[in-house]
Design goal:
mainly beta
């Protein structure tokens, strides 16, 4: 945590797992995200990434999106949804598909893989 925000960088790679939520019906996940020092991230070679994952009823984790830097637009772009984020806070939202079939618990996590501590 830094300034009341969850934070990750190359020195603090890791995972932020939210507590499971019991539910019987569709689930939506929304959160705000931004990247500091965007010019320092690599889209190739070292391949900095951030994955949004979920699991239902303690099953295996499923990846909803993996964000990598698009060096042409200087944004992190999700490989499944095409959602993007950059230096300003952006709200990402996940709903539909497998998230409509929750019959028990749903859990979400963010997993970062960043190559340098200044990213």
């Amino acid at each position: 945590m830094r300034h009341g925000e969850a934070m990750t960088n190359g020195a603090s790679d890791g995972m932020l797992a939210l507590a499971p939520v019991d539910n019987d019906g569709p689930v939506t996940l929304s959160f705000d995200i931004r990247a500091e020092g965007l010019r320092n991230f690599e889209g190739s070679t070292y391949g900095d990434s951030l994955s949004v994952q979920m699991r239902l009823d303690n099953s295996d984790w499923q990846t909803l999106d993996t964000f990598v830097i698009d060096e042409h637009t200087d944004t992190f772009t999700g490989d499944q949804t095409g959602q993007t984020f950059a230096g300003q806070a952006t709200t990402l939202t996940y709903s539909g598909g497998v998230l409509n079939t929750v019959d028990g618990s749903a859990q979400f996590r963010l997993v970062s893989d960043i190559s340098a501590c200044d990213e």
